Amino acid sequence: MARSEPGTRRLEPQRHGIASFVMPEFYAPFPLERNPHLREASRRMWEWIGAMGLAPTEKAQARMRATGADLSGSYVWPRADLDLLATGLRWLALTFRIDDQIDEDDQDDRLAERAAVIADLRGILHGHPPVVGSVVTRALTQLWQETAKGRAEDWQRTFIGHFEAWLDSYSTEARLKTARRPPQLHEYLEWRRYSVGMPWLWDLGELTLPTLVPETIRECRPMRELRHAAALHIALVNDVYSVNRELLVGYPCNAVLIIQQQHSRSPQEAVDAVADQVADQVRVFQCARTALERELDKQDVSVGSRTAATAYAETCAANIRGQIAWHSQVRRYDIDDFRRASGSEPLASYPDDLLLRPSEGAVRETTL
């Protein structure tokens, strides 16, 4: 069974309400690190959420509390100073809300509106004003301007690329849902390493380092493999924890569901197969980490650049371990809020202020 961290809510062993299975023990042979500035950074995050109007209702606030964006960030950036951690927590709070509204709250499958939102959010990163104003687009505009100010162009380019890949995953999933074609596991994993969001979070983490990772190292093959393996490890763990909630909202892009449906596996067999994939990612990560050391020798980088690259890899390893701890402690993937909802009560957690209907605001013409 998966081990609980000190002071956490035990989720194992137990039977889950819809897909019945016992939680496996996820392989993650790395140290657990958590940022000591969590309490103050969390206070700042909630102050910003209130100032931006991101959680204006009791239900929205409850969803944000259940998500534990602040706790997640303490594991994502375990060595960040207070200011950077507080900035990171704002990014997480905002993007968790975007994820909820696009993947969970939109029960009407407003695909054109989704595409318009994604185009709007992408445009903000390139300095364009949003076509449709909302609390989300205003928050992203402010946050990106603050984060990008004074940053190196190659770092901004990398961050934007990873953030756009995260946004684009919603379009990919929408196309498949429209075509009523579930993805094959191998193609799902190709975009899942971006849809989990970790690559751009680690780009933010680079800002904790005295020296940024050189672009030749950041984009070399061992570093890409290391980053992809760590992201997939976290994504697959997430798929197991989130499967029952995603079953309830009819969200098909989940490795457990894909394996179960396409290979005629029981829920337990599918979960165990995903756990095996998780272990595979550890082995890929460790091989890539060794190859990265050879690449650093080959490129003959400076001491500072080597230290930055090594610290980046260490942070990814800590994230592999830390995100298991986060999943085991938060209530983000519980289904109690759905069970409590009456037949007339909408399931949506947030006000419908992101996926605006055409009559409610200009919708940018775009194609999924």
From TrEMBL:
The entry's keywords: Lyase, Magnesium, Metal-binding
Example GO molecular function: terpene synthase activity
Pfam families attached to this UniProt entry: Terpene_syn_C_2
Catalytic activity, EC: 4.2.3.-
The keyword Membrane is assigned to this record: no
Keyword Transferase recorded: no
Cited SUPFAM superfamilies: Terpenoid synthases
Cofactor(s) required, per the database record: Mg(2+)
InterPro entries: Isoprenoid_synthase_dom_sf (IPR008949), Terpene_cyclase-like_2 (IPR034686)
Coiled-coil stretches noted in the UniProt entry, renumbered to this chain: none
UniProt family annotation: Belongs to the terpene synthase family.
Protein name in UniProt: Terpene synthase
